[in-house]
Design brief:
It contains 15 helices and 6 strands. The chain is mainly alpha-helical and about 450 residues long. It has a two-stranded antiparallel ribbon. The chain has a two-stranded antiparallel sheet with strand order 3-6. α3 crosses α4, α9 crosses α10 and α10 packs across α11. The longest helix is centred in the middle third of the chain and has 36 residues. It starts with a helix and ends with a strand. About 5% of the residues have low confidence.
Length: about 450
């Protein structure tokens, strides 16, 4: 079963509301008072709705396996929580929440209780939440459902826009609080917009860390003028993606030669030997585990095995949904999960994580930082532009290749379709993507 776009919209709304209710209840129990912990003023928390949508897309095939469903839900929820916290901290240079004082926590962004709750929520969504939601929707006429859906999204868009404006003003306000005296700030607050001011007070009440002292980013505190891509920054991650995509393609090509006896293209794009699966994995793994790169090998191996397996599973589903094509199938390998991942390759991810942080990353990091700063910035954006064009063209060629498989070689009038057919015929596509299988 695959959920339609309309169903995913309702899932987003339904769990945004349930998530808001859960947050209010938890805070009411802990703080003995009502606290609206949502980003918006309405009774919706989009983060929970987005999480439910991700579960519904990527974990639907695991409904019959409760163990993998719990593990998948825990990992996806944890990664989403960490990325959300990191993005908010990058914007405000403050933590919106901090669990660093709790035991069994990950860099203050989440603790073991959240990890367990994310796993149980995946089980709840598929076995109770979604069936209940669609049962209720079946009682409402289709036209009424459509009108309600549009109304809710309109209200959420307006509320979200106002909240974003309030957040941007709050960022400026917090910055000024570090520059002027308290009395002058109070006077300035009197001239603020009443609506955004109310939202700012609500957010600072729900997330006290926003009013706390500014967190000092050790990487930003260093001298940025001399070194390019210092630490774990945007430019460093881009170069790790590029290098990882190239090396991953080369390693897979050599592995196929040694194991299958044939030279086989493992590239994700039509131009250049770049495997996006490996490139994104290098950047994502580095971003998530950078602060733990010096930990014991066993820790990195366990984290790499779980995160790598989950990542490969999600990539398999994503490419199938977007391109209608399966690029790898492990059905013939023992201990596989739907042919998308298998135990052996998951262990390879764990070994790769250890080798990456203990052997490869330190040298690559120093190599990237030796690039002159101005040259590095220009080259980075040139590479980003090239990869965007390359990936977009690859997506179009794959889409057209699938159409030809369904429709046969037909004469097309559109110039861009003729261009794709002429420059990327079936023979070339089969050479670039030898393992690609069209999904019927």
């Amino acid at each position: 079963m695959v959920y339609s776009l309309n169903q995913l919209c309702w899932i987003f709304i339904f769990y945004s509301f349930l998530g808001w209710c859960a947050g209010v209840i938890v805070n009411a129990v802990q703080k003995r008072r009502f606290v609206n912990t949502g980003f918006m003023s309405l009774t919706f928390c989009p983060a929970y709705g987005l999480g439910a949508v991700l579960y519904s897309i990527f974990l639907i095939e695991l409904r019959g396996n409760w163990l993998f469903l719990l593990v998948g839900g825990a990992v996806i929820g944890a990664v989403q929580c960490i990325l959300t916290g990191v993005v908010l901290q990058r914007i405000f240079h403050r933590r919106w929440w901090d669990y660093s004082r709790k035991r069994f926590q990950f860099d203050g962004y989440l603790h073991i209780g959240h990890f367990i709750a994310f796993g149980l929520s995946a089980y709840f969504i598929f076995w109770l939440g979604n069936p209940l939601l669609f049962r209720i929707l079946s009682w409402i006429p289709e036209l009424i459902r459509f009108i309600i859906l549009l109304g809710i999204f309109f209200c959420m868009t307006v509320d979200g826009s106002v909240s974003v404006i309030a957040v941007l003003k709050l960022k400026i306000r917090l910055r000024r609080m570090e520059q002027i005296t308290e009395n002058m700030q109070k006077a300035a607050d009197g001239f603020g917009n009443a609506l955004t001011g109310r939202i700012q007070r609500r957010m600072m009440g729900a997330y006290p860390n926003l009013a706390a002292d500014k967190i000092k980013d050790t990487e930003q505190a260093k001298d940025k003028s001399a070194v390019f891509a210092q630490g774990c920054c945007f430019y460093k991650l881009v170069w790790l993606f590029l290098i990882g995509a190239f090396l991953g393609d080369i390693v897979e090509t050599i592995f196929c030669r040694l194991s299958a006896g044939v030279w086989m293209s493992r590239s994700s794009v039509v131009y250049g030997p770049f495997s996006f699966v490996w490139g994104i994995a290098c950047a994502l793994l580095t971003g998530l585990l950078y602060k733990y790169k010096d930990k014991n090998d066993r820790y990195l191996f366990a984290a790499g095995t779980i995160l790598g397996g989950t990542y490969e599973y999600i990539c398999s589903i994503f490419t199938e949904i977007v391109f209608g094509t399966v690029f790898w199938d492990y059905s013939d390998i023992p201990f596989n999960l739907g042919g998308r991942i298998n135990l052996l390759y998951c262990l390879f991810w764990g070994i790769a994580a250890v080798i990456w942080f203990k052997g490869i990353y330190p040298g690559l990091s120093l190599l990237v930082e030796k690039i002159p700063k101005k040259t590095g910035v220009v080259l980075t954006w040139i590479c980003i532009g090239f990869m965007i064009i390359n990936a977009s063209l690859s997506g179009l060629t794959l889409s057209r290749y699938n159409e030809r498989q369904k429709e046969g070689q037909t004469v097309q009038q559109d110039s861009w379709i003729r261009f794709l057919d002429q420059h990327f015929p079936d023979e070339r596509m089969e050479k670039i993507y030898p393992n690609a299988k069209m999904v019927k």
